Amino acid sequence: MSQMPQQAAVSKCPSCEEPLEPGDRFCGACGYDLSVVPARPEDSPTLAIHGVVPAPDDVDWPVARDSDGHGHPAPVHAAAELPGTDSGGSPLPPPSPAAPPSAPAVPVAPAGAPATGVRFDRPGEPEEYPLQAPDPRLTAEPAPVPRQAPAPEPAAASRQPAPAAPDAAEKVCVACRAGRVDDDGYCENCGHAQPRERDHMEQESGPIAAVSDRGLRHHRNEDAFSVGCTALPDGAPASVAIVCDGVSSATRPDDASLAASRAAGETLLGALPRGTHPQQAMHDAILAASQAVNALADEPATAREQAPHQNAPACTLVGAVVTAGLLVVGWVGDSRVYWVPADRTTPPARLTEDDSWAAQMVAAGLMNEAEAYADERAHAITGWLGADAYELEPHTASFKPDRPGVVVVCTDGLWNYAESAEEMAEAVPLDAAARPLHGARVLVGHALDGGGHDNVTVALLPFPAPSQGAGSA
Questions:
Q1: pTM for the whole structure
Q2: Residue 439 predicted with pLDDT over 60
Q3: How far separated are the first and last CA of the chain, in Å rounded?
């Protein structure tokens, strides 16, 4: 009959190290079969007595190599002091004496041996690669080509390409003063957005000057002006100034003001030398400006279908003609003309009436001027140039001042900060008649200092027109 496997006498489970009890056949923790554990072999350990282990008599211990034959080994030598042998037992060649540290030399192949080449992938780590034997058809070796050390690379900053200097005819960046301004209005060198041409405009023509500025709040300048000098048939000088303000709620107000100012200015400078009365010439100039603005609304029907929310371009207009003894003004809208005498002891005057809600309230006696212009509807205009205007009513007036002075033609971007004639006279420099461009700059600065909430445009005309102002502009 079969016999049960005899249990090995172990104190811990060989699988989980759990302590065991005598007589256990299986581990109580993991269930390991303890009967498969081999029994420990019986041994008789050798115990050291007084630190010496007696050698058995039946063991034949070999004698140490190179001993004296009495069990005493030879003196110990260092490995470098003994001659070495290769795997066949032949002695190794003696090592060559150490050479002093120097630059690594290229090994020279012995005669008849295949040529070798050296590649330095890393400094100090040459690797040899066998090369093919030279072609016997070659009778002479080519002369070695001397190698020159590479030129030192320039610094990183100097490797950056310098921006090309713009031509004299090209626009120069206002920020870096070096880059050329691209067609999209940005500098090719530093990427700075450039001010648009109409953001700030200045022009001086003979004795008159005009300045227009975008202001501090608007994203573009919707004002425009036209100034020039001519002569009447009798040779008397005449000065002309037209100022237009685009209606912001209309489509393309900047185009409307530009078209109106150009049309009116050209009409006046063409009519006055022919002998047309200045007041009639002003009336005709306003009609020409109206036609120019109306033409901007003549768009294809498809354009209106794609943008049905667009309306007709519109603007206001104010102008002045100064001759030797006559001052003519004309307007449609709320831009104004002021008279400021050279003698500041005499009162100044406002020469135009606004086409606005506030002016109508004052004219009807429903409000005084302070109350009307304090209302939020004060600047709602009732007259303008444009295809959607209710009815065009050009206003013209003639004056004959009895003393010299300066005529101020401006948009509401200026007179909002100098509304009354007295306030405007205080803002006009005393030498404005002699230095009109400087005076116009001062007035624009006055509006900007006040807040610059709107576009600002002003033209200054000395009265009477000096003789040196004759000639075509």
A1: 0.61
A2: yes
A3: 139
